[in-house]
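User: I've been going back and forth on whether these two constructs are worth ordering. Before I decide, could you fold them both?

Assistant: Sure. I'll take them in the order you sent them. The first construct and its structure tokens:
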Amino acid sequence: MKTKFVIFLALVLLSACSTSNKSSITQQPTVADYQVGEKWVWKYKGVTTEGEIRSDGEDTREIVSIDGVLGMTIGNDTVPVADIVKPDESETPKYDWPLEVGKKWKYENNWTSQDGTTGSQSQNAEVLSYQEETVEAGTFMTYTIKYTGKTTNSRGYSANEEEVWLYAPRIKNFIKLTQNQGDFLYVEELIEYSKPK
């Protein structure tokens, strides 16, 4: 369930965007911001406070063209880019575009995992900064977005959580995610980004 939840959040974050170099305001993305062959690779690891490793591996996404329609490969699936960049009409969205330092909003999400477990998430979000950050894939100008709140599910699980996303507009993606949820720490970091010249 945790992996599916993180994949969902990552998909939301994969929304591309364009940023002016003269300001730190980032608008909602469009399909035109992507190109065939663009590729992102992250490494991820999730560990409990007891030291149990619950997830450890790599995640690769790539832009492909199927019958002239741009899509993003996610595991064994290909999601149309148009679906990824579709504006979120929710009053409590994951991202409240345009992004800018100091912006605050409420994020709420209800979900169902593959095994039928239902859950909800309620978080307060804030864009803390726009500055250079370095990960294995390189150095990027990023927004630091902090989410704090609670996650519950139909199996009786309830945990306070804090997530910090480092989102890099130039590559239309996050470069690092650190998630603390109860007794679980999950970290995902970009190790490779490439696109055709």
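The second construct, handled the same way:
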Amino acid sequence: MSPPRVLIVVNNPSFFLSHRLPIALAARDAGWDVHVATAPEPADAVDRIEEQTLQHHPIPLSRSGTQPLEELKTLRALYHLYRELRLDLLHHVTIKPVVYGGLVARVAGCPAVVSAISGLGYVFAGESLRHRALQAVATRLYRAALRHPKSRVIFQNAYDRRTLEDLGITDPARAVMIRGSGVRLDQFSISPEPEGTPVVLLPARMLRDKGVVEFAEAARALKSREIDARFVLAGDLDPGNPAALERDTLDNWVADGIVEWWGHCTDMPTTLKQCHLVVLPSFYGEGLPKALIEAAASGRAIVTTDHPGCRDAVADGDNGLLVPPRDSDALADAIHALLEDPERRRAMGHRGRERAEAEFSVDEVVRQHLEVYEALLNESRSQKVLSR
């Protein structure tokens, strides 16, 4: 019997490498024939995927959905790829692959589908008329995409699961909770805080809905209080994203001495060792932010928002503090409190490491994914036997 074949579909090859590569490698080592489909750029990320002896298939996946002809090209490319590969299992990750891939999978006759809901994005996060209109459209699309008879839907937090179940989109019997993409506990290790001026780090893409503006406002407020600290942004620009900050804005903050901008950091374990406190004031529809579980594994206290996904990584007062979304004053007060109390901050960091060891290990995340793969494979094979 030939090995079972799985295709993992992700919008961005860099995201695949940072969030799903361990699952793909473990599946390959367990005897699966693993294929990966992503957008063709960035090319260096695609090269790194192929270096892992994983078979990569470029798909025209745009960041936006504003060009109907381009979206039709995506749907057509997915259909032809699914038919060509004769798959045993599909694994869709991130919103567009989940929706588009789920719609195509049923038409193409794919026997089993895993859909990973890594956050609901900004659509389900607002109450404006525009948000409600988008939610109505998204609800219909999700409902159609997630109704494959042999499927599992993986959630990273209880809010997302409850939201889709309450809307009648997902069947509770097919829902699985897996806590994020996991963290390598051997790579992200606890270390003493560095000597010198405290460093407050925001590790994220430079997006408004990651709370970058609120972070800068809090930094400005704390400097006006004469708090001695360095406020650092560690993340790249994301010009294709509608929530992206402009380079001029960041350059002005740096010129004014409000923040430092380190740009994209490829060595996050070392970057986290250089800081004293990690801050993520996100109001985006997060799943379970990888930056927060990496901070916890590194033994750093966290200040983040009381918002789905973020609050799933931090117990308020235990391994960090929670503040209301979009509230730069509350954010400044929470940062101030932990800068002024190093003993409390370090104790929170140690409890964060304990939580990471108990809940966020990548080994456990991989094990749970492979269990889902095997369960669906057995279901589809049993169905084939019964239908003969």
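Notes on the second construct follow. The longest strand covers residues 5-10. The two ends are 18 Å apart (CA to CA).
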